[in-house]
Amino acid sequence: MAAVTGAGLSFTFAVRAATGPDSDSATPTAPPSPPNAGASYTAAIKVTGPTTQFHESVAARYNYAFGKESPFLPSNAMSINGQFLSPKSFPTAEYCGHCHKEAYHQWRQTAHSNSFRAPWYLKNVNMLIDEKGVQFSRHCEGCHNPVALLSGDLSQGMPKTRPFEEEGITCSTCHSIQSTDATGTGSYVMEIPAVLVDENGAPMTRPVPDSEILAHLDRHSKAVMRPLLHTAEFCAACHKAAIPASLDEYKFLRAFTVYDEWQGASFTRQSPLPFYRKDTVSTCQTCHMPREVMTGGADDPGAKEGKLASHRWLGGNSLIPAYYKYDEQAEKLVNFLKHGPDGNGVLNVDIFALERENAPADKALLAPLGLTSFPVAAGETYIADVVIQNKGIAHSLVPEQRDFYESWVDFTVKNASGKVLAESGFLKPDGELDPSAHSFTNRLVNIKGELNDIHQIWHNRVLAYNNVLQSGRSQVARYRFRLPRGYKGQFTLTATVKYRRFNQHFVDYAMDQPAGQHYPMPVIEMASQTRTLCAGNNTPVPPGPDENKEWMRWNNYGISLLDAQQYKEAVAAFQHVADLRPDYADAYTNMAVVEISWERYDDAKPHLAKALSLLPGDPRALYYRAFVERNAGQVKEAIEDFKAVLEKYPRAKDALRELGFSYYQQHDYAESRNTYEKLQAIDPDDLAAHYQLAILYRRLGEKEKAAIESEKFADQKDDPTASTYALEFLGKHPEVAAESVVWHTHDITGDPIHRPKEIQYKYIPGAGF
User: Following DSSP, what letter does each residue of 88-155 receive, concatenated?
Assistant: First the structure.
């Protein structure tokens, strides 16, 4: 333990033991560039400056499995000087919490704080270690335990108990990151931690008495705060990830792209393409670190006007507060998943329509429900169209490890007394989800054509399907049901989006459950809607307080039909929007988007002309008009439209990609290269940029650059043979194969269902779930 005293105060902070002397307090040299997909990792991580004794002691016994020039692979993390950093140089959270009481209190209950010690994580990463070796766990620990990674602890002969195992992502890791880029998988550069700079601005990398900090708060702020911490690019270092060839010994596979999803969403105002427009910009911090009034009378010098940037990072990890009995975090997390950071909700569920199965095509659709009169006959079969809108999340639902997170739609048909007549999306007695439920997930398939069911990502080969709900978009879930013959009176249709942290199979494995026993998890209802109908004639009813306006309901329906590739029906839905709001330019642009997706470019022209007459110079309409122009051979006109889009949205990746290709078509290779390089500055691993730059650099005589881009394209492009693994898996699992079809219906017809009572988990304060 090291003692720090001053100003009448005394406290201690733990120092983890490390092999070799600690001499990492020297002033660091200038940092290398962060890892970049367009440059070699080797060049980025050269050791700079004199090596320390600690670095040399680690290097002498370290397993350089991926070469001495790349000590931290498969993670993209690096230290500021390319050397190993002593764990003693990282102050603990307890040390910081002596002053920052409220931030420490919040942090302790978070996924960041528990990123390494959670038993389900340890079970999974130790499976990787046992199978392949501890050096491969660097891929995980770069974001789950940066201190263990950068101290060189992840090598053979080191104990599985790692430095900072109780802290995971601690205060001094985030606040010591000097730079990041959008490559992800830990693409950050870590400085030697310092809580104070000296009078010349140089970091003081030694224990500092709090009296010295209190006497120089401005210098403390300079040491631990930097503008980078307020940006989404800071979070991108870990909240974007890939499985590199150094881990799977196969090829690059994208794992998740939360940052990219955010960057293209309406929340950023960096792209004109989202279906809805936002008035303000939201970053990761806007939603996950809002300034809040401090509670419980706790003091924190980081607060401004009584408000502190939340260090709870509320998100989707509902099992951590249940497992560790963090009641306060659990309550706030449930509220966050239901209502979002602004209280306006994150999802909207709309039981939008009924389709009469045996009616003529022009009379089959009964929509929108609640605003129109229609008959329902007992004994007949109907299809309920449920539209789920992702309105308040700046990324997809679900965003990250989709193979074992679980979010789905529970749809029920109940009689007037509440008895379930039919259901899709129920939980079975063993806790497993109804296999035919409409779920927002994917299926990872390995080389054997089998499901990677316990997150063995290093065996991944292909996605059987990916059914996540992107930001600002909608999905339609269809349910085929039949009212019993002779049925009379009312019945209800209810659709509820539910969420739990893991699927039952994974959590039972992770928590070492004995055969026949199943680990309980909280199930959170994120959004729901119930419509009461009756056998006979149904008349309009007043809209509920949370219902969208009629034009928006049709708009969301149209978006969902477009994504389901039902183009004729999508155009009709957007035409309803135009009829209800003839001044709404996006209604006409949306029709054009459908026609372009349908490859009916000429049919898109009048819609775009109408949109631009209503909203002259609109970048969204110009972007799609450029497609129509280029298809007609009017490449110069397309270039002008793409350039006009980029004048207002300079970080619009889609516009940059298409402009670069348009220049290429004109044989303007220099401008094409410049445009693709701008795209790579935003997204270092854009596949189209790798492909085109490989060609362009070669034609411009830059052969070394061409070779780099060609190699990256070959590694990151889809493996055309991998689809055979997916087909093999889908052939064995018809319930999953049905979900992989973009347009599908969940058939819950037949006699009233009889099944054991659904498992219910109730939250008990102080005892978890």
Answer: GGS--HHHHHTT-HHHHHHHHTSTTTTTTT-HHHHHHHHHHHHHH-GGGGHHHHHHH-HHHHHTT-SS
The CB-side HSE value for 493 (13 A sphere, CA atoms) comes to 25
Q: How many residues can be counted in the chain?
A: 769
Task: Give the count of alpha carbons within 13 A of 414, CB side only.
Answer: 15
Beta-bridge partners for 389:
348, 474
| 196 secondary structure, DSSP code | -
**550 SS3 class:** helix
Is residue 560 a contact partner of residue 476, using CB atoms and an 8 Å limit? yes
- Rounded CA separation 376/527 (Å): 26
pTM above threshold 0.85? yes
pLDDT digits (tens, 9 = 90+) for 227-248: 999 999 999 999 999 999 999 9
pLDDT of residue 157: 84
Q: 486: alpha, beta or left, given left = phi > 0 and alpha = psi -120 to 50?
A: left
Structure tokens at 670: 């220099």
- Give the chain's end-to-end CA distance (angstroms, integer): 37
Instruction: Kindly tell me the burial class for residue 602, based on how many C-beta atoms sit within 10 Å of its own C-beta (0-12, 13-18, 19 or more).
Output: exposed
pLDDT in tens, 471-527: 999 999 999 999 999 999 999 999 999 999 999 999 999 999 999 999 999 999 999
Residue 414, both tokens: 């109940």
Q: Give the pLDDT mean for 324-343.
A: 95
β-pairing, 188-190 with 78-79? parallel
Kindly tell me the burial class for residue 483, based on how many C-beta atoms sit within 10 Å of its own C-beta (0-12, 13-18, 19 or more): buried
Distance of CA 230 to the CA centre of its chain: 18
Assigned token pair, 463: 């996605």
Structure-block tokens of residue 598:
């349908």
Q: Output the 3-class SS for 10-28.
A: EEEECCCCCCCCCCCCCCC
Tell me how far apart the alpha carbons of residues 597 and 606 are, in angstroms, rounded to a whole number.
16
- pLDDT confidence bin for 28, thresholds 50/70/90: very low
The two beta strands, 347-356 and 490-500, are: unpaired
